[in-house]
Amino acid sequence: MIERPITDWLPLTKKEVEKRGWTDVDVVLISGDAYVDHPAFGTAVIGRIIESEGFRIAIVAQPNWQDDLRDFKKFGKPKYFFGVTAGCMDSMVNHYTANKRLRSNDSYTPGGEAGFRPDYATTVYSKILKQLYPDVPVLIGGIEASLRRVTHYDYWKDELMPTILADSEADMLVYGMGEQPLRELLSRLKNGETFEQVRDINQIAYLHESHDDVPEHKGWSSVEIASHEVCLQDKIKYASNFKVVEVESNKWQANRILQKVGDKTLVINPPFKTMEEKEIDQSFDLPYTRLPHPKYKNRGPIPAYEMIKFSINMHRGCFGGCSFCTISAHQGKFIASRSETSIMKEVEELVKHPEFKGYISDLGGPSANMYKMKGKDESICNRCQAPSCIHPVICSNLDTSHKPITEIYRKVDAHPEIKKAFVGSGVRYDLLVDDFNKNNKDGNHDEYMEQLVTRHVSGRLKVAPEHTSDDTLRVMRKPSFKYFRKFKEKYDKIQDKHNLKQPLIPYFISSHPGCEEADMANLAAETKDLGFQLEQVQDFTPTPMTVAEVIYYTGVHPYTLQPIKTAKTREEKLAQNRFFFWYKPEFRSWIRSRLHKLNRPDLADRLLASPKKKEQQTVAVGDKKKKKKKW
């Protein structure tokens, strides 16, 4: 294999900077992830955008924050600013399980080793930079900063925290997918403006001195939410705040949000409109090597990279609006789809990878089958405030045609170097059930399913019904479980027709707000009747800026302010989880006793009866490994 020159990657060391003939740099980007030069890794995307705008960029990946801080000093003072990101995950989700146990591995570190980033990484990195270089602006972004941009509940501290701008001491925050605000910021800095002068850019947040009025903007109106201090005293006000933030995040013509925090005012400018095809192509078509930086060669593989190195992301965003999910909160509910040309260009790049053997592991996106879906009449979308386009019913204005994605699958399949292109992302099954999705006028959903099941399933297909109780599913913003049954019938028919044995892998969540013990017992019974034997189930984690997090903390739904019960104690969570293990002898007497106490002997009989004589599918869902930390 021919080794690529080190200058093909963005520089990680002073020596690499000098190899480019630079004596200093314009921007230094600090990241909690190892540097993988691939469009699935935010550090690479942001770094390549900065490079494409003509700036000299260097990266500090996973700096040591516990020594003499030499990693933060190695490039000296950048001309324009420091950029800071915790990485592709919130550092607390990265570090801890739903039971707050420390994880023993980190998928974004060579060798999968844990301990190479701090808790609350964005805040730690930013404060260090402000200590070392107080006069250099710090710009924070990425999912951790984005979802903590306003007063939020932190599950790990079990307390409300203010905007991350207050704790981190950063000068500015870019929220959501950062390409559009970053390009505008870079353009204006290049023209001589300062950070104080560029505060009218969409999709940024900053702290303003409260004794000065926030400057007017001719295109924006402002809405003020309850202050951080009021939220600390009043959970209902905090819940009401969330509704405003979510609604404004999902509008095309959004308001600017203001919130008092101590003696300052948090200003969150409205988001940009979703990227057009040309803009998202521009981001994916940058000159990535698609490889980890060579410095990691002897430290072992980077698990997150190994998982996606032969995958292709076709779109961003998700219009599902699920209560527990952060995808729409960060990427937006409107879908940004790449062009067919850009996708096929990436296929050509992928087949040149030195380890490629002809198999694409995933041809998908956040939800695999939302490619090219959007409003038929965009003027209706322009006025819409709904957090979901498919809950409680599918919007009649939503074009759910699967024809564009089916055509992409076929074109990739026809490529001479591709043996198989699998869909590893979760498929949004409710879009494929005609009883739920009334927008399937020309039957292209059936054509898509046939193509998917016969050509693109790698042994099993992942879908996420999440629960069986209609009451819990309403809180989750998910459709009734009866539609999963209908999807399974359709899926099984196609399998039988082609003599295939590719099990469905359904994902479920335990201890979600609105879920009672009897609901979990019923879930276990329903899945047992369908032939599933669940080995693991994902326990609910309240992550910032989700409906479910607000319910968990406040006890009320932010839209109705009506009480909703949530399992919180370790005992309650464990009880919900145990019902899934009806097939284990050690749990049988506990299950019978527990369900009799709940006056549900019928569920005990269903769960503890011998399984029907049909093939039982063993399904592992979630991540329940014991974890520990290491530096």
From TrEMBL:
Domain named Radical SAM core: residues: 304-584
SMART domains assigned: Elp3 (SM00729)
Gene3D superfamilies listed in its UniProt record: tm_1862 like domain (3.80.30.20)
One Gene Ontology molecular-function label: iron ion binding
Cofactor: binding comment: Binds 1 [4Fe-4S] cluster. The cluster is coordinated with 3 cysteines and an exchangeable S-adenosyl-L-methionine.
Region (Disordered): 607-631
Residues annotated to bind [4Fe-4S] cluster: C318, C322, C325
Cofactor: [4Fe-4S] cluster
Membrane-spanning intervals of the chain: none
Pfam families membership: DUF3362, Radical_SAM_N
Cited SUPFAM superfamilies: Radical SAM enzymes
Similarity comment: Belongs to the UPF0313 family.
HAMAP family: UPF0313
Protein name according to UniProt: UPF0313 protein
